[in-house]
Design brief:
161 residues, ABC transporter ATPase, 9 strands, alpha+beta, two-stranded antiparallel sheet, 3-stranded antiparallel β-sheet, single chain
Length: 161
């Protein structure tokens, strides 16, 4: 069951899929329509899942699930991953590789491999105050409060000199 993302409780579970490039406005529109259609039909053992999404900065698909009504099962999580894989193929992008880092480089959002990010940190091209996207957040509350944070306040801090 699709709901407005903003109405989901702060305890809702969150999955963040970061794109390796910025999507065009047309791609965002198509991805949004397809995500809406998927979430309208998303179930766990025959029970509708109350879920919403945001597509942030033409780059991040953020899916939230209110688990107080029904939790995602292994099969429903598999279905969501298959859906994301379909988007990857359709738009020729990478959404599932967790070994990449996305961060602000001035007003621009940069996307680098973890190896390249480590090199940049060593060369001091990124600093403890560089704002990174912490895609390891688990709840809507964490997403709202700790998703865009200085590198020093996230797991990225281990790479800073």
């Amino acid at each position: 069951m699709l709901v407005d993302f903003n109405t989901l409780p702060n305890t809702s579970r969150i999955w963040i899929y970061q794109c390796n490039r910025k999507l065009s406005d047309d791609e965002v529109q198509r991805a949004s329509e397809q995500t809406e259609a998927f979430l309208k039909e998303w179930t766990a053992h025959g029970t509708d899942l109350e879920a919403g999404f945001e597509l942030k900065y033409n780059r991040f698909i953020v899916i939230g699930l209110n688990q107080s009504n029904a939790s995602a099962s292994g099969c429903s999580i598999d279905a969501s991953v298959r859906f994301i894989q379909q988007l990857e193929k359709q738009f020729e992008v990478d959404l599932l590789d967790k070994m990449n880092v996305t961060f602000y480089n001035g007003d621009y959002i940069a996307h680098k491999s973890l190896v390249d990010f480590k090199k940049m940190a060593k060369a001091r091209s990124v600093s403890p105050n560089t704002v990174v996207f912490n895609n390891l957040v688990n709840t809507k509350e964490e997403y709202l409060e700790n998703w865009e944070v200085p590198a020093k306040d996230s797991w990225h801090s281990r790479f800073l000199a």
